[in-house]
Every structure is written in C-alpha cells, then in structure tokens.
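In response to reviewer comment 3 from the previous cycle, which asked for concrete evidence that the modeling workflow produces usable outputs, we include below a single protein chain processed end to end. The sequence was submitted unchanged, and the resulting structure tokens are shown without manual editing.
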Amino acid sequence: MARPNWDGIAEATMLLQEVLEEEGLTAAVESRVRRVLGILSLKVDGAMPREEFRELRKKLGRTQEDLASDLGKRTRTISRYESGDVPIPAAVAQALRDLVGDQ
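The workflow returned the following structure tokens.
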C-alpha cells in the first residue's frame, strides 16, 4: 500500500477533528480518535511530536506569535501544532530545527 501524501494526512486529520467536535462521543471513542491523530502526525516525513515543537520554540525564547512570524505562519497555526490538532509538516519541522541550529 502506498504511503499517503501530506494532503491525504491533512484531510484525514481534519475529518478526525470534525469527529472530535461532535457531541455524544464516548470517552473511549474520543480517546481512540486522539490516538489516531497522534499516529498520523508521526507519519508525515520529517514531522516532529508536538512536545518537541514546543520545547524547541521555548529553547529559542520565542512566543507562539513570534514563531509564527519567523515561520510565515499564523499564530493559530502554531497553537494547533502545539496542541496536536494538526500534524506538523516536514518543512515546518525542518525550518524550526534550522532556527535552533542558527542560534
């Protein structure tokens, strides 16, 4: 089976986010959906866990707003990366690593 590309993972992530917003989910279902979201985030080539993303941002001494400006992203996007709402794209992960390396 071919590995899904970023677009497929992004679409699947958004669909799972919609499921999490539905009312009436049991705790067990919500837990499984969140677990799947975590797995998807690690399947993107070059992706990093949200915890690492947050640690690197703090190592730089940058706020979410500052980092958004540095990476050409919106503050809300940085927040969603750190909360695990969406996977961190490989290009963003590498750009953050490069910023840390330049320090």
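Confidence is low (pLDDT under 50) at residues 1-5. We consider this sufficient to address the reviewer's concern, and the full set will be provided in the supplementary archive.
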